[in-house]
Amino acid sequence: MTETHATITPGAPVFPAGRYGRRREPGRRRPMLPALLAVVLLATLGLLAAKLYRQYGDPRYDAQVITYTEITDSQVVVDFRVTVPAGGSATCVLRARASDGAEVGREEVTVTAQPGERRVDARHRLVTSARPFIGEVLRCRPAA
């Protein structure tokens, strides 16, 4: 014999009482927590991007190695070009590495452009602790 329920609308599913747990009440969902987490995530990513851009991505201070010469057991001469704002100065980090990749010399060098000029050609003798294989400019930033 089948059981008939007078309160169930036609077409609605019938579940045995107590078998599937408590049914949720239909109502308004609150997307507050996911929205708040999304805002916090976007703010964190924005701050991280701004920090990394200031540290590594300022295109106004661009450096290129032209050549490195006069390699001896204790030095390398690095010729490089730096693009700065007109008449500005930059502090650049120069590095020398040995053939095995080890850093054998590092120094900060400040270069200043002539008034109205945006490019500075510079030459610097970098003292090393062993024979260098290459001389390079790691980065340039505004002079302090």
Features:
144 residues; 2 domains; 17% helix; DUF4307
Structure commentary:
By secondary structure, the chain is an alpha+beta fold. The chain has 2 domains: 30-58; 62-142, Immunoglobulin-like. The protein is 17% helix and 38% strand. It has one helix spanning 32-56, and strands at 62-69, 75-83, 89-97, 103-112, 119-127, 134-142. The protein has a 3-stranded antiparallel sheet with strand order 1-2-5, with no helix packed on it. Strands 4-3-6 form a 3-stranded antiparallel sheet, with no helix packed on it. A hairpin with a 5-residue loop joins strand 1 (62-69) and strand 2. The longest helix has 25 residues, at 32-56. It starts with 31 loop residues before the first helix and ends with a strand.
Largest sheet: 3 strands, antiparallel
The name of the CATH architecture of the largest domain is Sandwich
Low-confidence stretches: none
CATH topology term of the largest domain:
Immunoglobulin-like
Strand order of the largest sheet: 1-2-5
Tertiary shape: elongated
User: What's the number of helices?
Assistant: 1
Helix-strand topology string: HEEEEEE
Q: Helical amount among residues, as a percent range?
A: 10-25%
Describe how the helices and strands are arranged:
Blueprint: H1 32-56, E1 62-69, E2 75-83, E3 89-97, E4 103-112, E5 119-127, E6 134-142
Brief synopsis:
This is DUF4307 domain-containing protein. The protein is α+β, with helices and mostly antiparallel strands and 144 residues long.
